[in-house]
Amino acid sequence: MAFSSLDRKGLRDLWGMKGQAGAIALVLASGVATFAMSVSTLDTLKVSQADFYRGFAFADVFAQLKRAPESVALRIAEIPGVDRLETRVMAAATLDLPDYEYPVSGQIVSMPERLNRLYLRRGREPDPTRDNEVLLHEAFAIAHGFQPGDSLAAIINGRWRRLRVVGIALSPEFIYQLAPGAQIPDFKSFGILWMPRKPLATAYDVDGAFNSLSLTLAADARADDVIANLDDLLARYGGLGAFSREDQISHRFLAEEFKQLENMATMFPLIFLGVAAFLLNVVVGRLVATQREQVAILKAFGYSNAAVVLHYIKMIVVVVVAGSALGIALGMWLGQGLSAMYVEFYRFPRLIYHLRPEVGVIAVVISAAAAVAGTVFSVARAAALPPAEAMQPAKPPKYRRSVIELLGLGRRLAQPTRMIIRNIERRPVKSLLSVVGISFACAILVLGGFFRDSFDFMIDVQFRVSQLEDLSVTLVDATSAHALYSLASMDGVQHVEPYRSVPARLRFEHRTYRTAVQGMMPGGRLRRLLDAELRPIDLPTEGVILTDHLAGLLGIHPGDMLTVEVLEGNRPVRQVPVAGVVSEWVGVSAYMQLPALNRMMREGRAISGAHMAADEDRQLGLFAELKRIPRVAGASVRMKSLRDFYEIMARQVLVFALVNTLMAGTIAVGIVYNSARISLSERARELASLRVLGLTRGEISYILLGELALLTVVSLPLGCAIGAGLSQLMIEGLQTDLYRVPLVISPWTYSFSATVVCVAAFFSALLVRRKLDHLDLVAVLKTKE
Amino acid sequence: MTQEQTAVFSARALEKIYDMGEVQVQALRGVDLDLFASEFTVLLGPSGSGKSTLLNILGGLDRATRGTVRYLDRDLSQATERELTEYRRHYVGFVFQFYNLIPSLTARENVAVVTEIARAPMKPEEALALVGLSDRLDHFPSQLSGGQQQRVAIARAVAKNPAVLLCDEPTGALDSETGILVLEALDKINRELGTTTAVITHNSDIAMMADRVVHLSDGHIVSTERNSSKKRPRELHW
Ligand SMILES: Nc1ncnc2c1ncn2[C@@H]1O[C@H](COP(=O)(O)OP(=O)(O)OP(=O)(O)O)[C@@H](O)[C@H]1O
Ligand SMILES: [Mg+2]
Questions:
Q1: What is the pLDDT of residues A415-425, one digit of tens each?
Q2: Which pLDDT tens digit goes with each residue over A50-79?
Q3: Which of A78, A296, A510, B59 is 20 to 30 A off residue B228, Cα-Cα?
Q4: Which residue from A9, A13, A300 is facing B61, i.e. has the nearest CB?
Q5: Which distant-in-sequence residues (6+ apart) come within 8 Å of A344 by Cβ?
Q6: By C-alpha distance, which of A183, A101, A181, A171 is closest to A140?
Q7: Are A216 and A117 spatial neighbours (Cβ–Cβ below 8 Å)?
């Protein structure tokens, strides 16, 4: 390609302002990188999930039951719409790990053959003729450092057994390894194990029978029909209610997290990119405005307006392309890193990194459009003047006495200060744009930080105000409340509060939601429901209280009748009035008083488990003791899960926030630096003349940088307010079944954001000050004007 | 000069008013002027008399407030923005008092900016040779003296072989020795290429090399005189 002289001029001009062009490219790169990172992370997870599901035959429908003879499978296979079917055995177990005192529970699944097949990461499959070989889920194995060849013990059906780990595996069914009913993953205290079916069935007393199944649907089948038929068939065998993928725990949590990630991955970076684009528009506009005389010269030679505009567009496109390319490269790198981090939560055989080409295109188009619009606007304004006029130095602007001076305050102000104030007042639009630019830089920093604040607050309230137990015990089946007495009498136990948890499908009109109804002790001290002001509220003696999010999903209001389709025992269907809603941030639950729930179930004083408060130093002993109580299926430690969860969360959310903060910081620096540099080029001549007249470097720096400082100070509160507004906008998109994040912005986040902007302003000022010190007085004054 | 000579430019009742909000400045107050083909005209007048304003209007850089300007059969006073651009591109060469070179381009490239869009231009090197700058082709404006910069500006103006050459104080910032070099370049182009040339100056000595001298004062043409004998730039002193 032959370069025209004009192109060469463009390239040289770009080189001449490489500092500013570089800063603009970085602003863009940050916006684009955030966008590419978020979207590609989400896509990568989705593609990897789909790949895993497809390659390893993830089932469509699942069912648990008490026990059914294998012959029932034949009848299930005949249900219209069933494609492939696999029965299996699943056994809950308490695990006993060497060197780990905390309680660990496990779920042992018989080795799959056709559906939900395993990906063997390491080791080998267990020998079906041996009764002590198992595979461990990778998340669990990593959490405890298990290697093939290690051993562990399990209490299955009350009997203690030693098991040998022969391999580490992954399953599409347990991409997200989560204990049944858990709200947060805890890879240390819950694990999935696989064992050949024969020995497992023998150990669990279901030889020749099955207690779980999964199936795939024929192409035209409706999941609801198959589920209804299946439920009918399994009712006799203690069926717990079949469910589709949507209610499968790993799939549902993945779907929820994807939904949330999707909001993060679109809104967040779009706000980001939008802000970057807006700032770009302003900066580029001002930059081009300083080229007004060159525009006039080109026009005087007979270049058309279009040719001149095109010339500047070419220049800016170079910057946009460089910035976008850098941004996409950076975004890919970050996206790969971030996806790899998510793999700590979600276990895939392989991550298929995926960046859709249109992501790059969208990013480039948005930024190019913003930059080009800024360019065209400015060039058009310069080109609208007759060249004769434009070639003259811009008319000395009309100064007035400023409002402040007219108010009589002027006398107190020194001459340079008066110049600053008059200058700001004379060009209110320009000053306003500077303020808006710096404010937005501050605002996206707030936006980058608020998520962590909100998350901290949410976790804090949930686990320090609402859920206060030290440990929780799950019993094997709903048990008579007598079990409580043996728990309460254990050494170190201060307080025991029973709970009942009934799996159920809640229905209102045509809407349903599968969850558990929690029976809680009235006036309980360990588990409390909170109102909007975080004050504990009392459960009504009758009726059910719903999480506001659940009430919203069902479209139900206090006073309406909720249909509860119980999914255990003889599966009664009951009508219960909704007594109220509570706003909870974590989970989707329905609550009743324990006695009311027992009455609804037409059962005695049955409980599913208990929350306990215990002496800190006795807890370990308690776990050891609990393991020996036969009816105890598992125990969990709140603070422990919390800490472990935090560890992973910290790495994930915080890295995300850190990346955003870095990007926001880059944008802030880029914008502030450019504002200062442009002010300098706009006023170099004026300042040089003042130097010639005898003002010192310090004095002229004060005139220019004082203005920057004043605008920055004005921008900070505005930026914080805009940041809060953007966060509010953002948070609407973060409401999922997993958790609803409250909007909390800590003073720390505000002050951090303001500090970053101030530091950016300070360093920009230093750079500009250096330029001011080297202002070439002779060169500036010897040319025209 | 004979009466049948064609008027390249003819301005009639030209007025220019700069509207500055509170005050209005009347820069031209009814100017009638003809410039003839191949003629070398000098515009003289005190500062603020409207010389630059007039030249800019003739060159299509600005518009008159009232009155008409014609370039051959074009009515510049009615021309659209696009027509003015096209007019400047193909017919007019400008030399500005303050050179107005593009700082990021070398001498050769500054000329090329114009030749690249012209219809039948010279080579940039040719144009620079005409003003005696063959040895400074690849210098940037900041590496050239004022007189050299002005000569680059002249090379740039003539390189497109314009029909008219309009120069606003081309020697204003130069010492007499350099000024004469610049004037020689203009004279040579006028003679050899027959380019209609108008030069603004404050220096009445320069008027002696013109075919015709036009005096302006306060927005009016006060007199026009024809030189019976033109001097060569070498013969001038100031
Ligand atoms: N852009 C403008 N806005 C307002 N007034 C202007 C503008 N340009 C010129 N003038 C005024 O018009 C009048 C004529 O100006 P012009 O530049 O034509 O004078 P000139 O004869 O070229 O003077 P000089 O010899 O000083 O260059 C002057 O009074 C000047 O103040
Ligand atoms: Mg003038």
A1: 677 777 777 77
A2: 999 999 999 999 999 989 999 999 999 999
A3: B59
A4: A300
A5: A139, A648, A651, A652
A6: A171
A7: no
Q: pLDDT confidence of B3, banded at 50, 70, 90?
A: very low
Q: Which of A13, A16, A303 sits opposite B117 (nearest CB)?
A: A303
The pair of three-digit structure tokens given for residue B115, joined into one six-digit string:
């030749």
Residues 369-398 of A with CB under 8 A from B: 386-389, 391
How far lies B118's CA from each of B85, B100, B160, in Å? 12, 19, 6
Residues 6+ apart with CB under 8 A from A264: A38, A656, A733, A734
Domain range annotation of chain A: 90-205, 465-641
Tens digits of residue pLDDT in B52-94: 899 989 988 888 999 999 999 889 988 887 888 888 888 988 8
B53 lines ligand 1 (CB under 6 A): yes
Q: How many CB atoms lie within 10 A of CB B73?
A: 5
**pLDDT at residue number A780:** 54
Identify the segments of chain A with pLDDT beneath 50: 1, 782-785
A429, burial (CB in 10 Å: exposed 0-12, middle 13-18, buried 19+): exposed
Coil vs helix vs strand at B212: strand
| CA dist A363 → A191, A261, A312, A742 (Å) | 42, 19, 21, 30
At A1 the pLDDT is 46
Please indicate whether residue B45, judged by its CB atom, sits closer than 6 Å to ligand 1. Answer: yes
pLDDT value at residue B119: 85
CA A450 to CA A463: how far, in whole Å?
Answer: 20
Domain holding B222, by residue range, is 3-235
Buried residues in A303-322 as b, exposed as e (16+ CB within 10 A): bbbeebbbbbbebbbbbbeb
Query: Which of A39-43, A633-637, B12-16, B128-132 has the weakest average pLDDT?
Result: A633-637
Q: Is the CB of B47 under 6 A from ligand 1?
A: yes
Q: At what angle do helices A18-55 and A305-342 cross, to 10 degrees?
A: 40
Residue B109 is nearest to which of A8, A387, A784, comparing CB atoms? A8
Burial A397-426 (b: 16+ CB within 10 A, else e): eeeeebebbeeeebeeeeebbbbbbbbbbe
Scanning the structure block, which residue is given the tokens 């080297």?
A774
pLDDT of B2? 45
CATH number at residue B26: 3.40.50.300
Provide the domain count of chain B: 1
Alpha carbon B159 to its chain centroid, in Å, reads 14
State how far the Cα of A606 lies from the Cα of A482, in Å rounded to an integer: 9
Task: Check CB contact under 8 Å for A303 and B61.
Answer: no
- Asked if residue A572 lies in contact with residue A528, where contact means CB atoms within 8 angstroms, the answer is no
Highest mean pLDDT among A440-444, A531-535, B16-20, B214-218: B214-218
Q: What's chain B's length in residues?
A: 238
A205 touches chain B (CB under 8 A): no
- Which residues from A are below 8 Å from B104, CB to CB? 9, 12-13, 16
B141-155 confidence digits (pLDDT tens): 888 888 888 889 888
Q: Which of A170, A74, A160, A190 is CA-nearest to residue A116?
A: A170
The ipTM, to two decimals, is 0.77
